[in-house]
Amino acid sequence: MSETILQINHLSKSFGSNLVLRDIDFTVDKGDVISVIGASGSGKSTLLRCINLLETPTSGEILYHGKNILAHGSNPAQYRAHVGMVFQSFNLFNNMTVLENCITGQVHVLKRSRNDAEKHAMEFLEKVGMAPYINARPRQISGGQKQRVAIARALAMDPEVLLFDEPTSALDPEMVGEVLQVMRRLAETGITMLVVTHEMAFARDVSRRVVYMNQGVICEEGSPDEIFGSPKKPETAEFLTRFRG
Amino acid sequence: MNKFSQLGLDIVKLWGKYGNSYLLGVKNTLILALVGTVLGCVIGFLCGVLNTIPYTRNDPPLKRFFLRLIRILIRIYVEVFRGTPMVLQAVFFYYGLPYFSNNSLRFSSVWAAAIVVVSINTGAYMAESVRGGIISVDPGQTEGAKAIGMTHVQTMSYVILPQALRNIMPQIGNNFIINVKDTSVMFIIGFPDFFSAHRAAVGASYLYFPSATVEMAGYLTMTLVASFLLRWMEKKMDGSSSYELVQVDPLTMTAGTYSFPDHATPFDERNPEAVKSMQREALRRQVEREEAERLGKRAETRRDSETMAGRKEADR
């Protein structure tokens, strides 16, 4: 039994009268590589954004190592430093170079020295193959390269969990491969990952657990073989046949 | 023509007598405009940051109350100082303070009064510009900063404000140029600026129009130099349009991003091993092509004879 990092209990989120997440229960254990799949609008991204407190859940609790981070007096900034996030639209800081993007959080949030931060950042930039571009600015590199830098930026913070919010959806088809390759390598290194994705091949081959979401609830959860091989719910099966086309 | 030469002579006469006071006026005007704009920007940025501190329903009521109060106060400040003429604000500050405090409170110099008035006035405009600059930065930037654990202040100072500052540089330039011209109203409290030099010169010489010409040329020169410098600063802020690659990216093969893309590949003309293999490859291809041609010809002739035979058959 591995250590539980995140435990989500009865999480709900509504935008106005629109209930987007209903009573979600969900755990993330250390070393998990979880793919969250489902149709657009099923609440996948909102779930991820709630976990990172970019959206404030309407009700429920999120336990991080047993402590509820939604309680009054908890420090969201401190919590977020332990939970990395990679966005669909990269969100690299436009006023900084590639290297500065990967350093700023370490220096200002983790209070590392500039030297250490630089060394640490270079380690991850090399891993994602972006070391040659450290002097470039985000507007000067391609989408796939931006996403790889974003991954390096998140990794440089040494997060306990890395959240991916449709990391390849905003990319041109020929750039999807390079980002997925980086993510595959990451999964092999044992880092805990929670990936919202439309890349079914990635969900099937790389993740250890697949969560299928439908209309704001977790419809089915299991190993990739279970979900892709013999889905129990008719909704899951229907969703997957649509993908096989 | 006569008029112009007369004007020229008058200007020369004026400059001979009052040149120093004009130049002193230019100096004072520029200092006041610059200090006022810089302090105004500081006020504007403070207001902009305070105005955009987010609060949610989860925050304690006291925090929410204070944040709302701050927003209301800033709103009042902006509306009052944006909505009244600077010349009256100067009068209110300079003469109002001693009036209400029975002379116990007053500005020690016109400089202090002028700088306070210009800064506060500029601040009111800048507060709105900064708010606009902050809004114009993609919300994703804020999310990216929050996702790595930055607090609101850190997000603002390292990510949002540098970008907002770049976005509102044209506005700051605008305000500086407006301040260069509008500080002329400070003559009302006796501030020795460029325009008050005109008033002094005219009072003594009665050369109204020639002095006004000097003023016009002087103000235009100041603003033109200012706008040139601001353009240059904006360019500086944008940074270099190119960047140096440190080594080769192993994952992408994007055209045009390498200084030497063929390095150590079979297409590398500087690699003797590769050149040899390329020559071998070319030779092999040529042999193949010749072979194919020969076979093709044979096939063609066969096909030709077949069709001929077919036709003959059809003819029969």
Attribute tags:
heterodimer, A: 245 residues, alpha/beta, 6-stranded mixed beta sheet, 4-stranded antiparallel beta sheet, 9 helices, 26% strand, B: 316 residues, mainly alpha, 76% helix, flat
Low-confidence stretches of chain A: none
Count of individual helical segments of chain A: 9
- CA gyration radius of chain A, whole angstroms: 18 Å
Overall morphology of chain B = flat
> What is the radius of gyration of chain B computed over CA atoms, rounded to a whole number of angstroms?
37 Å
Mean pLDDT of chain B, rounded to whole units?
84
Mean pLDDT of chain A: 91
Order of strands side by side in the largest beta sheet of chain A? Answer: 6-7-8-3-9-10
Q: Roughly how many Å apart are the termini of chain A?
A: 38 Å
Sheet having the most strands of chain A:
6 strands, mixed
Helix content, binned percent of chain A: 25-40%
**Which spans of chain B have pLDDT < 50 for at least 5 consecutive residues?**
253-261
Supply the number of helical segments of chain B.
9
Question: Distance N terminus to C terminus of chain B?
Answer: 109 Å
> Major β-sheet of chain B, in short?
none
Helix share bin of chain B? over 70%
What order do the helices and strands come in, and which of them pair?
The complex is a heterodimer of chains A (245) and B (316).
Chain A: E1 4-15, E2 18-29, E3 33-37, H1 44-51, E4 59-64, E5 67-68, H2 76-80, E6 83-86, H3 98-108, H4 114-127, H5 143-156, E7 161-165, H6 173-188, E8 192-196, H7 200-205, E9 209-214, E10 217-222, H8 224-229, H9 234-244
Parallel strand pairs in A: 3-8, 3-9, 6-7, 7-8
Antiparallel strand pairs in A: 1-2, 1-4, 4-5, 9-10
Chain B: H1 2-51, H2 61-82, H3 86-100, H4 110-136, H5 139-147, H6 152-182, H7 194-205, H8 208-238, H9 272-315
Description of the molecule:
- Chain A is of the alpha/beta class.
- The model of chain A has no long low-confidence stretch (mean pLDDT 91).
- Chain A has nine helices and ten strands.
- Helices cover 37% and strands 26% of the residues of chain A.
- Chain A is globular.
- Chain A has helices at 44-51, 76-80, 98-108, 114-127, 143-156, 173-188, 200-205, 224-229, 234-244, and strands at residues 4-15, 18-29, 33-37, 59-64, 67-68, 83-86, 161-165, 192-196, 209-214, 217-222.
- Chain B is an all-alpha fold and 316 residues long.
- Chain B is built from nine helices and no strands.
- The model of chain B is unreliable at 253-261 (pLDDT under 50).
- The interface between A and B is large, with 51 and 35 residues.
